[in-house]
Amino acid sequence: MKVFVASAWPYVETVPHLGNLIGSVLSADVFARYARLKYGKENVIFVSGSDEHGTPIEIEAVKRKVSPKALTDQAHEYVKDLFLNVWKISYDNYTRTESETHKKFVREFILGLKDYVFVQEETLPYCENDKMFLPDRFVKGTCPYCGFEDARGDQCDRCGRLLSPEILINPRCAICGAKPVFKKTKHWFFDLSKFQDRIREWLERNKEMPENVKAVALSWISEGLKPRSLTRDNSWGIPAPFEGAEGKTIYVWFEALLGYISATIEYFEKKGNPKGWEDFWLDDAKSYYFIGKDNIPFHAVIFPAMLMASGKSYSLPTVISSTEYLLYEGQKFSKSRRIGIWIDEAPKVMDVDYWRFVLIRLRPEERDTSFLWKEALRIINSELNDDIGNFVNRSITMVNRYNESKVPPLDESKLDEVDLKLLKAMNETPDAVSEYFEKGKLKAGTEEILRLAREGNAYLNAKAPWDLVKKDKAMAMNVLAITMGVVRSLAIMLYAVIPTSSQRIYDQLSLGSIEDEKWDNAKKLIPAGHVVGKASPVFRKLPEDFEAQVPKLLEKVRSELEKTRPPLLR
Q1: Which of 78, 170, 297, 519 shows its CA 20 to 30 Å from the CA of 421?
Q2: Which residues are annotated as a binding site for Zn(2+)?
Q3: Binding site membership: which residues?
């Protein structure tokens, strides 16, 4: 089976923050790493890229007195390096919307929608102060549904309703604050209404789609789907391919969604296999998308409708895993107010694997969740160090000490109920983790991994092999054989979350490259006679006063980054 994995494309007018990271990029990486172990590396592809078109970047470039291309060139290279080389995000292809492959594919795809595209004159907000038509998100005002006073013209961040600028109460230009006027202009529209019944039917019969995604999408559909404009009156973007559409570009949301396909095409073109992408898109492949909750309508309604309208047998999304919002100490991330931590700051504060583990453990799967330093400290010191690290270190140390670093054979005649209970847990946990991961429930999956580690520690305490070895060596050797199997199991399952640390465990086990492992080997004991390496602590606790040190540490990090960040991102 082929498995396609994607994270929502980060918009690169600035450096992403931790909320952006967990909302799509890190979550998708965890699943992709798991999927490679489960289904084989050759059967999985993981893609994304920098979303770099549209008015926000155009405006930011104007402020900085550079071209949009100059801004996104710097941003793309900087963010790409952070993802691939610092955060260890295992993309097969991290590309960009300025890719020639992407631009060519988008124009061809959009032209192929001709049966569902029509031209219509419409009245749009125009800022007479800034001398430009304003895209939906550059008009702000009060939401007519929930009363939120800072709603955007395309969507309300509080109630999630899709909006349009003309229905906002007290609209204002998001750039200068002036009240916009409304002027006529001609645009090309995708007739989304033609797919209302098909999208509803697809969602209702999809048994794997998370219920929260279904609820949001079906709620939107119940209000009636309306045509959506494919074009915009701005210059920075992919030129609209329609006759008579000179000076217009394709709406950034439509083209970014198509980037999932173009990134796959580009990957296989570079491998010299230009038809290889079809195995992941035109056959019965599974596809997993990791996004923030504000992107649900685009991924669960608009994107499937576009695929249906193409006339080709594109695979529709299998699972769309959306997160709620991650807050920082109870507040929304804000660069201007210096609230939060950005992805180039975080690795200078704490080890990347610690961040990866903490963020997945705090992943806002059911409700908005606040990153709290006291909770991060608890997760690292208690869960990562005590529950997992302590068990790993104790187990390998005892094999070093009591059996000359050799994994002993299992004597089944000596097994008791306590042994059998842990063996049963080791056999069942990978399936439980897999079931959660396949539903996009990554935090819930790590709960199962932690449960096994805790059971392993309780087992060692109950068996006390340091005493048992003096009384019944055969039973003591059974303890070592079982715990070493559990150590291997934990390393395999944790690889998706903390790949560098899991490889360190594998190095101590002398088991080679963990990325070449198979998921189901997490259920198996290490063969008897295998010689392991010397035990060494994989994790270390953070000092209890670490939270108090953070403000000063962050101040120093930010001061250094002001000198080393690319000039256009400072």
Answers
A1: 519
A2: 143, 146, 156, 159
A3: 143, 146, 156, 159, 335
